[in-house]
Each structure stands twice: as structure tokens, then as C-alpha cells.
């Protein structure tokens, strides 16, 4: 399949090489190491058979298009305008590779430069890279950056940061000379006083997320002040869609901003590929340590504006073991989707989307908390997601609601044993009032 | 047609009031100001200064940009080490089905049985192809897989109480990610030399191998496109010292169904699903870098993995010796999904044919290129080979490998990988892949052989037919400009706040 050389072509090629058979070309693979049998994988399928097979498999899923989705936790069912698919579906973009040959890759390079510019606009910071894998490893990369910049050893991360980001961070930190400590958030937010008490002159960075994993807001300005006063780097994990109405990381004093970029035009697709956003302030120490690819503007030999990969000495293919990160690629196609998505929305569209999420989430919270036994877990303000205390066993309740046609929320007990009777509910601009009211009615019937 | 329309940056096309997306009317109460729902001190005064364009502006801008790319669908792309094979269109259609595209990563297993079955089978396929039984699909790219494997190795040695194993041996021909990953995993990197035949110098390896060796990272076939004929001797040697062997799986396209890393002594390997199993490269990503390991390393893999209980599938998080997560959510499932479709399309014979034809194409191209270029290492090669243009640097024209690369662009061929591996001077690394025809290979070889004789001016000023000539890379790094600014100097930076219309300050 997909091989185009005919037997005649192959014969001519073998003759030109001067061997009798393809087998002769594998002469350097010792016979005793040969597999000597066909691979035990299923027999080949035609396109028709494959389509039937895959369609049948997918029918066993109940996706956000079959079941009304109130799930969040870092991945959201936002609307993706058709222009995003139209652009990202152009195979001149999706079948190209890393733009090493700048003259033949100006499309990708300019698109990434625009992505970087858009991320600066979104974060209020001055430098953004060409994207990282996803939200969790971006937090870990921000930690690595901070350790390199400060040459200090202590890392503080709020318990309200996405649990999977914290797990990723812990994995990255396990083999390095650093200490990671989690700052508890018993009331659903990080108390800036706790940050002030924790930091010292060995603190490399403080990492907080707002809106946090529960969907609630943190006092980012006060946390930033506490971190920076100790000479530590303040790393802010933010939500790019909510940035349509909220103050930006650069506005509240973040040194490094990171985010899961999925909400910007990327399908949910069971967790990936997504993209990790990373931006930082413009400082030589930060520029030296920023991970991943960067596209810079320059001119060609005729003085014409063009774009090229730049500051490559930081990267693994040149610096090898001294590289600022081992990252070799960016999430190019997802960065393109994010750029097109933000451009399609524009400032007003992003603002209206964020605002719509806020209003729908608040409407949902108000209605849901009228169900007996249901209340908000935390008093702090929230944006498009919130934590609810529910009566009885949260997991069993969610299973009942699934039966009624709702992916109703995430059971917090999975990550926070002390919150076993709580769920988070996310409400995007796609959820209609009828869907929310239906959810409320189903909840009433289930409790 | 050389369309120079819309060479502007998207911000420069912005005009206040233009837009291409509108929300439906709000169906929940919206009379309260936002400040009544969220305290004012959290709210921005204005939205971020994004461009304001109409739908036709947006589509024309990006469509014109796309035309400034070379891609597999438009050009032969023999980029060594990158396996730029054809990306089947059926994968794109299937991956867009809502039963997959709209699956939330935190749905419960009872609502994701279909995707779990697919991913479970994918784990089985990758185990079978590598001969290594335990698989994690979590890593997002090849380099991420490498890093994951080294974390697994570190956890394994920690568990065994062998924390003195601090060294990772890496051949001098290795990808740069190898030493970079080793450093991140807390290891010290020791470089092992290649012999003149391009293979690992066994004596050098022996002299560097010790009780403090944790892992030997080897690429096989190596980056010169050569199969390490002594691979079993090498892996036995490492195992005799209690060390692990890691296989950089970047070159799996050469050995599918021919030989298996597990059978030649590797303990761990990563896959580049975007290379071997043809996930579209996306202009530099996304990739997917699953790893396969031996049974005794399985407890340390990142959780979760997909397991099967009877006829049900579930994510298993109960792995107390796991290194933990290396990312959020399950993995780059969209790429794994395409890889699965590819393996199901090809079947066992088709997979073997991939490697046979990839090796045939590489050897044929090698033969053709050797008509006019030095190919320093003896054949046959595997799926790729490295030529050298160093003789052209020595003649009075002083032609560099990069000049040839740039000139190739004029004839509609993407350049080979250049100046890698570092063990070959003026290296031109070519990987044609199995999906190219003899005619294409001949056309490429004829062109490369022809341009070799061109005058210095033509070569050094190439490319001549692209939208831009060679960029000034020194200027790019010195006068660093990593984002768009509204004005060339003294203007208001784009990222600063603008008026409520959202128009970037100073925009036309």
C-alpha cells in the first residue's frame, strides 16, 4: 500500500544497484537476528473496511457530541469556527516539517511568528515560544527555566494547580537537584500569606494557576509580589479563553506564563495533541533559558522582510547535553490552529466568548445550588468552572447523570481525597440554557 | 504565479470593527454587569489586542501563506532522519469523526470503550513490532519518549539500589536529543566514537563502559543509515555490566518485520509514530513518542496504561512504582489514532514491504548520488544514507553543502538534512522513504548531479525562485524580533493595551 514502484521499476533499481534481490540489501542484518515470521498484527484492510471498523469502534464511545458535556479540568468543549479546520486542513501546512529551509517554509515561519505575537498579546508578556507539548509539560519546562535562571533549588506549587500538571512537574523534578513543595489550598485558593511565609532566598519559583483546577480565581498579584520579593520567578498557569475578560499574566506580575492551549481551536480528541503556551518577560536570562523553537523576523539578501528559526544555540541539536531543554519540535499545526482561532474571534469575539462562559457558568451554579443538598464548595469567585458539593456518593451520582445523557462533571475525590463529595462543573459558550436546565432537572431527579 | 498579495503580518491587516465570528444570542440572564459576577480587580479593562479581520481576509492570508511552504503533498522531501512519507488522506477523514474528535480526556472508561480498545490494540502492535512487551503511549514526541525511557531507567536503578550508575553512553553520531534527554534525567553523558566504517567503535565503547554505566543509547540503523552488524555483541556487553540498552527508534522505518529491537538486545525504545506510522508532521509537530520496554521495566512506566479485563478496557492508574506522568492527559491520541489506521491498513506484509521498499529506494538513490558525490560509508545502506560534498568545498568555487540545498529548492525539491550527522563533513543526509517512485528519485538525482557543476554565483545566491532569498540569520539573532510591533521603532508594542475597539495601536 502507498508503494508506487512497479515490479519493472524494482527490477531496474536492483540492476542499477548491482544486487539480485531486495533481500541482498539487508545483508548487514545478521540472519540470527531476523524475525523470520510475519508480524503478529491483523491482516490488511481496504479503506472501506477500515472506515467500517473505525466507525464501529467509535460507536462504543459516548463523546461530547452524544452526551452533553460539562467536563473541564484543563480541556474544554469550546466551539471551533470552520475557518480553523479549513486552514489547518491545508496539506501545505500539515504535511510540511520543521522549517529548517526558511526560503521554502515562509508559510509556516510567518504563521508561527504571528502565533508568538498573538501569545504575547494574550499574556501581556514580551516573548513567546513556538509552543510546547501541552499544559503539564509546559509547567515543568517553566520550572526548569526558573531553576536555570535563579540557580536556586526550591520550587513551590499550589495544590490548586491542575493535579496532572503537578504530577508531571514531580516526574521532571525527580532526577534533578531541586525540592518541590506543594502549598496547601484547603479553601480552594492559595493564600498569599502562605507564600510569603514559605519563600526564601533559595526559592527558584512559585507556581500558581488562575482560574485554578477548581475553576476559581487566585490572588495572582499578591502571590506574584510575595514570590518576586524573595527574588523568585513567578510562574502563572492561565486559561487562554478566559483571558478575554480577565487580567493577563503580564498585568498581574507573572514572569513566565504557561497554559494549555486546547481551548483555542483544538478538538478534544481524548487528550491530545494539544499545545503548551509559554511566554515570558524580555530579559536576557529568560531568553537564554526559554525552551523550544523561536521564530525571529529578519530580512533576506534583497532586504525583504522574512522569518527564520532563531536563537538555535539554546537547542538540543547544537547544545546537546547543555541544551535548555530536550525539546526538538513544537506543536506546529496546533499553534497554527490557535493562531487562526484567535484571529477568527478577534478581541471582541474572545471577550464575548469568555463573558458568555462566565454568564452560563454562573447561571448553572445558581440553578444547581437550588437543588437540595447541593452547594458551592468554595467562596472565591469563579470563571467558567466551579466546584460543587453534592449529596451522597459523587461518583455514583455522576454515573446516574451519565445515564440521563450528561457528562455532568469531574469527581474531585480522584485527585483530592478530602473533596470526595465534590465535583467540578465546566460550562462553555456551547452549552445552552435548555441543556443547563436539563442537567439541573436530572440532578434533582438523581439526588 | 508568484502571489505577493497579503505579505503583511495578520496584525497589519487589522481594521477596527471587522470580525468573522459571532455568538448566538445569549439565552441566560445577562443584564448584570460582569463585575457583579467577578470582582472588578480580576477583570481587564479591554480584551487583548488581537487583530480584527473579516473571514475572507483571514482565509486569503493563510491560504497565501500555505503556498509559501514546501510539503509532502507538493514536493519530494528527502529530509534524512525525518521519514517524510506520504500521509494518507483516509486518516484525516477518520480522525475528524465526532466519536473521536469530541472525546473529552477525563471521561469515564465506560464512555470511552471504543478509543480504549483502539489504544489497547496499538499498545499490542507496538509491543509486537519492537519485541518489547510493555508499552506506554503517553510521550508526546520522540524526544519526550527518550526522556521518559531515561526516567524509567533511573527509577529502575534506584529501585535496585544502584544509584551509582550515573553515566549514559551516547555515540558521536547520535541525535542531539539523546545527550539533552540524558542531562535532564540527571545523567552524565559520555560520548562513544564511531569507527571509520561508521559503526560503534567497540574498543572505545569497552574503554568507557563501567560499573557506573546506566544506559547506552544507540540508534540502529544509525544516523548514517547503517545497520550495526555487531549489535548483539554490543548489547551483550552492556548487559554483562548490568547496564540497559536504549534504542532511539527514529529509524524504525528500515526494520519493520525484518528484525526487532527486543530481539537484538534493546531493553527500551521509543517510536516516532509521526515518522514510521505516518502522522502528518504538521510543520514541526505534533508527534507522538510511545516507548516499549522489557517486562522488568514495566512497573516504572508512566501511568495510566490501557488494560483489558475480560471484554472491557480500562485505564490502569494503580502502578505504585511508576515514574509518574510526563504530561497531562493520555497522550497525543490523534497521532496514535492515525498510526493505528496505518498499521491496520498495511497488515503484516504491508509493514514489511514498507521497510523493503524504503531500503530499496534509499539504495537506488545512494547509487545515483554516488555517480557524482562521495558516499563515505560502504553500502548497502538501510532506509537512508549520508553523502558528502566536501570535495566541492575544496575546489575553487568553494561550494558548501548548504548552497546545493538552497539550489535544490529552485527545482522543487526539498533539501536533504544538512550538516548532520556531525561525523561526516559537509553531510547531505537523504531519506527518500518507500512512497516515492523511481521517476521522482531519478529526477532528484539528475538535478543534484547537474547543479553540482553550476557556477559559484548561481549556487551561492540560490534559491532564485522562492518568495524570499536567504534570510540574514545573524541579524535575526542580533536584532532579535520575536513578535510583531506596531511601529518599527518608538512605536507602541503590539502586546500593549489598546483602545476598546481592540485595534492594535498604530495599525493602518
Describe the structure.
The complex is a heterodimer of chains A (447) and B (508). With 447 residues, chain A is an alpha/beta fold. Chain A has three domains: 7-56, no CATH class; 68-79 and 347-446, Aspartate Aminotransferase, domain 1 (Alpha-Beta Complex), CATH 3.90.1150.10; 82-340, Type I PLP-dependent aspartate aminotransferase-like (Major domain) (Aspartate Aminotransferase, domain 2), CATH 3.40.640. In chain A, 38% of the residues lie in helices and 14% in strands. Chain A contains 15 helices and 15 strands. In chain A, the strands form four sheets. Chain A has a seven-stranded mixed beta sheet, sandwiched between helices. A four-stranded antiparallel beta sheet of chain A has the order 11-12-15-14, covered by helices on one side. In chain A, strand 11 and strand 12 form a beta hairpin. In chain A, helix 6 (106-123) runs parallel beside helix 13, helix 7 (135-150) crosses helix 8 and helix 9 packs parallel to helix 10. The radius of gyration of chain A is 25 Å and the shape is globular. Chain B has 508 residues and is an alpha/beta fold. Chain B folds into three domains: 1-68 and 474-508, no CATH class; 109-345, Type I PLP-dependent aspartate aminotransferase-like (Major domain) (Aspartate Aminotransferase, domain 2), CATH 3.40.640.10; 352-460, Aspartate Aminotransferase, domain 1 (Alpha-Beta Complex). Chain B has helices spanning 55-66, 89-95, 98-101, 113-130, 142-159, 177-184, 202-208, 231-240, 273-276, 333-369, 390-394, 401-410, 438-451, 456-460, 473-478, and strands spanning 134-136, 167-171, 188-192, 213-219, 244-248, 268-270, 291-293, 305-309, 312-316, 385-388, 417-418, 427-430. In chain B, the strands form three sheets. A seven-stranded mixed beta sheet of chain B has the order 1-7-6-5-4-2-3, sandwiched between helices. Chain B has a three-stranded antiparallel beta sheet with strand order 10-12-11, with helices on one face. A two-stranded antiparallel sheet of chain B has the order 8-9. The radius of gyration of chain B is 26 Å and the shape is globular. The two termini of chain B are 28 Å apart. At the A-B interface, helix 1, helix 2, helix 3, helix 4 and helix 5 of A face helix 1, helix 2, helix 3, helix 4 and helix 5 of B.
Amino acid at each position: 500500500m502507498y508503494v508506487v514502484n512497479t515490479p519493472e521499476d524494482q527490477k531496474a533499481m536492483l540492476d542499477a544497484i548491482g544486487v539480485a534481490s531486495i533481500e541482498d540489501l539487508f545483508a548487514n542484518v545478521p540472519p540470527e537476528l531476523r524475525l523470520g515470521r510475519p508480524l503478529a498484527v491483523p491482516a490488511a484492510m481496504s479503506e472501506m473496511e477500515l472506515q467500517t471498523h473505525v466507525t464501529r469502534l467509535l460507536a462504543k464511545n459516548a463523546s461530547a457530541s452524544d452526551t452533553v458535556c460539562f467536563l473541564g479540568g484543563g480541556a474544554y468543549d469550546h466551539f471551533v469556527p470552520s475557518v480553523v479546520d479549513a486552514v489547518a486542513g491545508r496539506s501545505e501546512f500539515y504535511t510540511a516539517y520543521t522549517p529548517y529551509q526558511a526560503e521554502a517554509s515562509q508559510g509556516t515561519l510567518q504563521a508561527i511568528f504571528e502565533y508568538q505575537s498573538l501569545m504575547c498579546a494574550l499574556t501581556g508578556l514580551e516573548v513567546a515560544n513556538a509552543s510546547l507539548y501541552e499544559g503539564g509539560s509546559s509547567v515543568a519546562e517553566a520550572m526548569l527555566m526558573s531553576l536555570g535562571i535563579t540557580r536556586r533549588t526550591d520550587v513551590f506549587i499550589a495544590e490548586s494547580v491542575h493535579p496532572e500538571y503537578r504530577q508531571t512537574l514531580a516526574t521532571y523534578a525527580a532526577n534533578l537537584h531541586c525540592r518541590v513543595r506543594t502549598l496547601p489550598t484547603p479553601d480552594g485558593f492559595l493564600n498569599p500569606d502562605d507564600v510569603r511565609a514559605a519563600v526564601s532566598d533559595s526559592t527558584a519559583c512559585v507556581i500558581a494557576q488562575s482560574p485554578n483546577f477548581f475553576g476559581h480565581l487566585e490572588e495572582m498579584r499578591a502571590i506574584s509580589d510575595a514570590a518576586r520579593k524573595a527574588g523568585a520567578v513567578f510562574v502563572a498557569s492561565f486559561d487562554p479563553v478566559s483571558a478575554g475578560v480577565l487580567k493577563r499574566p503580564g498585568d498581574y506580575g507573572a514572569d513566565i506564563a504557561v497554559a494549555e492551549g486546547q481551548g483555542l481551536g483544538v478538538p478534544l480528541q481524548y487528550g491530545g495533541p494539544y499545545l503548551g503556551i509559554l511566554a515570558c518577560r524580555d530579559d536576557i536570562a529568560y531568553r537564554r533559558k526559554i525552551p523550544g523553537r523561536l521564530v525571529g523576523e529578519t530580512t533576506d539578501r534583497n532586504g525583504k522582510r522574512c522569518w527564520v528559526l532563531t536563537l538555535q544555540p539554546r537547542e538540543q541539536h547544537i547544545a546537546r547535553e547543555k541544551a535548555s531543554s530536550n525539546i526538538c519540535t513544537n506543536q506546529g499545526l496546533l499553534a497554527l490552529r490557535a493562531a487562526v482561532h484567535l484571529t477568527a474571534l478577534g478581541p471582541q469575539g474572545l471577550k464575548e466568548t469568555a463573558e458568555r462562559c462566565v454568564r452560563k457558568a454562573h447561571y448553572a451554579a445558581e440553578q444547581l445550588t437550588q437543588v437540595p443538598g447541593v452547594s458551592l464548595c468554595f467562596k472565591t469567585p469563579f470563571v467558567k468552572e466551579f466546584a460543587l458539593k453534592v449529596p451522597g456518593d459523587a461518583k455514583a451520582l455522576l454515573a446516574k447523570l451519565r445515564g440521563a445523557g450528561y457528562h455532568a462533571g469531574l469527581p474531585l475525590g480522584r485527585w483530592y481525597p478530602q473533596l470526595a463529595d465534590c465535583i467540578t462543573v465546566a460550562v462553555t459558550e456551547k452549552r445552552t440554557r435548555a441543556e443547563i436546565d436539563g442537567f439541573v432537572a436530572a440532578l434533582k431527579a438523581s439526588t | 504565479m508568484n502571489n505577493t498579495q497579503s505579505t503583511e503580518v495578520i496584525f497589519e491587516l487589522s481594521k477596527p470593527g471587522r470580525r468573522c465570528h459571532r455568538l448566538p444570542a445569549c439565552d441566560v440572564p445577562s443584564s448584570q454587569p460582569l463585575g457583579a459576577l467577578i470582582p472588578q480587580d480580576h477583570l481587564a479593562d479591554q480584551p487583548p489586542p488581537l487583530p480584527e479581520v473579516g473571514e475572507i481576509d483571514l482565509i486569503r492570508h493563510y491560504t497565501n501563506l500555505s503556498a509559501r511552504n514546501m510539503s509532502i503533498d507538493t514536493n519530494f522531501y528527502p529530509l534524512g532522519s525525518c521519514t517524510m512519507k506520504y500521509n494518507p488522506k483516509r486518516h484525516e477523514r477518520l480522525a475528524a469523526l465526532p466519536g473521536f474528535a469530541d472525546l473529552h480526556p477525563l471521561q469515564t472508561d465506560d464512555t470511552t470503550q471504543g478509543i480504549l480498545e483502539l489504544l489497547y490494540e496499538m499498545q499490542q502492535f507496538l509491543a509486537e513490532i519492537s519485541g518489547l512487551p510493555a508499552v506506554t503511549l503517553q510521550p508526546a514526541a520522540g524526544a519526550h519518549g527518550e526522556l521518559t525511557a531515561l526516567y524509567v531507567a533511573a527509577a529502575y536503578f534506584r529501585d535496585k539500589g544502584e544509584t551509582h550508575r550515573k553515566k549514559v553512553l551516547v555515540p558521536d553520531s547520535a541525535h542531539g536529543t539523546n545527550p539533552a534527554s540524558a542531562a535532564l534525567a540527571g545523567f552524565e553523558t559520555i560520548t562513544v566514537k564511531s569507527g571509520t566504517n561508521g559503526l560503534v567503535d567497540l574498543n572505545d565503547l569497552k574503554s568507557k563502559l563501567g560499573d557506573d554505566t546506566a544506559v547506552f543509547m544507540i540508534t540502529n540503523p544509525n544516523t548514517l543509515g547503517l545497520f550495526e552488524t555487531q549489535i548483539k555483541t554490543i548489547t551483550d556487553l552492556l548487559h554483562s555490566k548490568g547496564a540497559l540498552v536504549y534504542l532511539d527508534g527514529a529509524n524504525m522505518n528500515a526494520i519493520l518485520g525484518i528484525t526487532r529491537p527486543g530481539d537484538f538486545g534493546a531493553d527500551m525504545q521509543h517510536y516516532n509514530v509521526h515518522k514510521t506510522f505516518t502522522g502528518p508532521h504538521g510543520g514541526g509537530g505534533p508527534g507522538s513518542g510511545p516507548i516499549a520496554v522489557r517486562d522488568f521495566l514495566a512497573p516504572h512506566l508512566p501511568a495510566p496504561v490501557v488494560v483489558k479485563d475480560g471484554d472491557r478496557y480500562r485505564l490502569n492508574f494503580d502502578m505504585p512504582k511508576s515514574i509518574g506522568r510526563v504530561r497531562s492527559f493520555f497522550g497525543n491520541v490523534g497521532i496514535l489514532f492515525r498510526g493505528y489506521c496505518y498499521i491496520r491498513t498495511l497488515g503484516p506484509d504491508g509493514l514489511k514491504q514498507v521497510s523493503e521498499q524504503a531500503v530499496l529506494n534509499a539504495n537506488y538513490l545512494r547509487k545515483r548520488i554516488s555517480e557524482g558525490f562521495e558516499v563515505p560509508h560502504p553500502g548497502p545502506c538501510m532506509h537512508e544514507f549520508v553523502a558528502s560534498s566536501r570535495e566541492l568545498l575544496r575546489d575553487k568555487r568553494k561550494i558548501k553543502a548548504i548552497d546545493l540545498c538552497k539550489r535544490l529548492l529552485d527545482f522543487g525539491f526539498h533539501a536533504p538534512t544538512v550538516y548532520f550527522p556531525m561525523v561526516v563533513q559537509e553531510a547531505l543526509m537523504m531519506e527518500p522513504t518507500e512512497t516515492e517512485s523511481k521517476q521522482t528519485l531519478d529526477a532528484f538525482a539528475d538535478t543534484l548531479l547537474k547543479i553540482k557543476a553550476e557556477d559559484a554565483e548561481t549556487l551561492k545566491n540560490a534559491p532564485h525562485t522562492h518568495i524570499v532569498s536567504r534570510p540574514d540569520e545573524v541579524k535575526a539573532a542580533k536584532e532579535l524580533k520575536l513578535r510583531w510591533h506596531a511601529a518599527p521603532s518608538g512605536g507602541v508594542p503590539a502586546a500593549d493595551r489598546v483602545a476598546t475597539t481592540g485595534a492594535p495601536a498604530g495599525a493602518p
